[in-house]
Design goal:
By secondary structure, this protein is an all-alpha fold. It has helices at about 5-10, 10-20, 25-35, 40-50, 55-65, 80-85, 95-110, 125-135, 140-149.
Length: about 150
């Protein structure tokens, strides 16, 4: 974790490297880095929201292409893997829920052509599974809107 005043003082490349594990979209990263310094975290978040509104289809697909599947423990020492492990740390997965998540992830990827995306922090594995199963019934346009949001 880095403090805002430290983030503001980093070289551009170092600041960009800190953002990419969150969302590896060049335009988004560049806009956030170029708008420094931020007096408050709320200002940083406002810039991040504005830079993401809207992502192009290509930007969204590129970001999702590297995102780990929910319920799978990311391997390796990359920043992305560490962020995923941290976000999913609270998931208690018994074998039955793990199997259902695996099957629902496959169904989602077959239906929508991308990995299922949801904020895992603070949610139970059964809540995530329910959301995944519910979103499988979305039409592609509706799901695009959910993912973009």
């Amino acid at each position: 974790m880095i403090r805002l005043h430290e983030f503001n003082r980093l070289e551009d490349a170092a600041a960009a490297a800190l953002l990419r594990p969150c969302l590896d979209v060049d335009r988004w990263v560049t806009e956030i880095v170029q708008d420094r310094p931020y007096p408050r975290t709320d200002d940083l978040f406002a810039t991040a929201r504005a830079a993401a509104n809207p992502f192009t289809g290509a930007e969204l697909e590129a970001a999702l292409a590297h995102h780990p599947r929910i319920g799978e423990q990311a391997r390796g020492g990359s920043a992305e893997a560490g962020l995923s492990r941290s976000e999913q740390a609270g998931l208690a997965l018994d074998d039955d829920v793990q199997q259902q998540l695996t099957e629902a992830n496959r169904a989602y990827e077959t239906r929508f052509g991308r990995v299922f995306l949801i904020r895992a922090a603070g949610r139970s594995s059964t809540e995530i599974l329910d959301k995944l199963q519910t979103r499988l019934s979305n039409d592609p346009d509706t799901e695009d809107d959910v993912v973009a949001d």
